[in-house]
């Protein structure tokens, strides 16, 4: 059974940093791209970032470019999102999502349950 | 960035109705479009990819069509379990989602 389990969400002050993690199981993690998607309370889905199976291709939404970095450790079946200079508009439930292919140009066939990031002073 | 626009934002319908949701891309994305269903408190679920291919296990009352910049999701006969929010997603250049269509019970 494919599972994606996010962690690291917390209450953080504006301008501070936070690192999210996602541990995958039930599939060959090193053979698929993975993504972060967020959803602000009561709002729609927003793609944040994605990373190819071998970390060779990485993409970011304009809203987070220059502040967030994405990485993966295939030996640990893990995906990470380093979020710096957090803003109120970054407050959301952050989902980890598995791509159906090695590269970023594919739909997301499995999702985690999300980890909540709250940005407030 | 490719912008995705869905319509309508909200749709009221009854069990047994046929409904259609539209998604427009700001530039051509060929057929690189997916549809997701999301219920309150749950993660999104993939329904359709490559504009018209049904994901395994998805009921055949769901169908998708379109290419280029205009796409549609059709539910042929609404069932009680179908009342949810639906999102389109382009995956031609990175990814982006439409703003969602909430399907409500009339």
How would you describe this protein?
The complex is a heterodimer of chains A (121) and B (106). Helices cover 0% and strands 50% of the residues of chain A. In chain A, strands 2, 4, 5, 6, 9, 10 and 11 form a 7-stranded mixed beta sheet that branches. In chain A, strands 1-3-8-7 form a 4-stranded antiparallel beta sheet, with no helix packed on it. The model of chain A has no long low-confidence stretch (mean pLDDT 98). In chain B, 0% of the residues lie in helices and 50% in strands. Chain B has no helices and 11 strands. With 106 residues, chain B is mainly beta. In chain B, 36% of the residues are buried. In chain B, strands 2, 4, 5, 6, 9, 10 and 11 form a 7-stranded mixed beta sheet that branches. Chain B starts with a strand and ends with a strand. Chain B is globular. The interface between A and B is medium-sized, with 22 and 23 residues.
